[in-house]
Here is the input.
Amino acid sequence: MLLLSTIREERDRLLEGLAKRNFNNAEATLDKVVALDDERKSTQTQLDQLLSEQKSLSNEIGNLFKSGKAEEANAMKVKVTNLKEESNVLEERFKAVKAELETELLGLPNLAHTSVPHGSTEEDNEVFKELTGTIPELGADTMPHWELSGKYGIFDLKLGVKLTGAGFPVFKGQGARLQRALISFFLDQASAAGYTEYVPPLMVNEDSARGTGQLPDKEGQMYYVTEDDLYLIPTAEVPITNVYRNEILKTEDFPIKMCGYTPCFRREAGSYGADVKGLNRVHQFDKVEIVQVVHPDNSYDTLTEMCNHVEGLLQKLELPYRILRLCAGDLGFASALTFDFEVYSAAQKRWLEVSSVSNFETFQTNRLKLRYRNEEGKTTLAHTLNGSALALPRIIAALLENNQTSDGITIPDVLRKYTGFDIIK
RNA sequence: GGAGGAGUGGCAGAGCGGUUGAAUGCACUGGUCUUGAAAACCAGCAUACUUUACGGUAUCGGGGGUUCGAAUCCCUCCUCCUCCGCCA
Here is the structure.
């Protein structure tokens, strides 16, 4: 959620940013927000005035009763009752204005960082770092991962359909081991980089979902348990970032570095073709997430640090990758700047997104009420960042496809101590 | 799932209808004292909104109600504790 102070004081910059994001009616929306905020303030001032009068009169009534002047007290009661009627009307108006203001604010996306390129679709994303690593030369009998899975019995989509439905792959045998190996590897790497490991709940309440911006923006993306009003997490970002919801930190608490492995659940309606084939897009997948809560002065350095961490993982896995800087049109609602990491699948001959690293600045912390006490003792919003490190299915797809040989699928060196085997046969 | 008890400031813990945003203790911050430290003493110490400012308003688990007036009474939801049941 954007800050009202930003909307009031940096209107031009904001209009520019909203235009970049192709946001319609930006000017009218900002005008409306400011007008609502003005009304909220003036309503509150009037309301407070009335409440204050009521309060002091009520105290007088108490004193009158004590000194035995019941008649005067009763006369005063009528006065207060009248005041109360007046204030009730104002209070209703106050609540309505506040709610409307909130709705408008929730509809505004984060202001994109100045380095975010213009553009409306993923075609306009900037290649921040060109292909790094080598694309393997594969033979004529190269298979995509969904065919390899059948050949080696790594995972089974049909079985998933039988057990649950489309988009719920079942990993088995060496495939299941590979999955577990990757999780351990990613977590060990995160721990070594100073992240504290969490095992969070896989369902969250409404407050948590709102805190990180899943609600109300992406309600349809989440599985929802109606009986208990809980949401299945679409990413570990949600529970982990909410650890510090409603907290006031000290500057010496920074940086807070957290990581966690969780399954992720996404309803992901509306895609087709190669995008959703095999493991390319599924409803349940595993991911290790890294999250940081930092001082606003350091958040862009932290973004770089987190990108370096993700890059290191891809290098250790010996996967060819590139880094994109997302354009304004492709940038997530809550993000100020996002780098996407893509690995190249030699068999599918396409790039697969395996990580997204973002700085949200104060967009999430404003909703989360996640603050710190600054040098002057004032409470100030912290910055949050997160990144996938990494999401498993497409890593597995790329590993299977790029490492296929006539003898089987070779496992990268770094994973061998985790898998316990060096080739999938 | 059933029965009972409880939720107050960073923590502990009073208050149980009337200037109570809330006693007291601990913790914390600043000061005096001291060569330094400790002790002692003095002062400060919730959050948010609002006001140019003085100040004002709201918040005692959440929401609603009764009353001129609620931390205190009523309803409801949530959470925790104890006992019973069930269970990996």
Q: What stands out?
A: The longest strand of chain A covers residues 350-361.
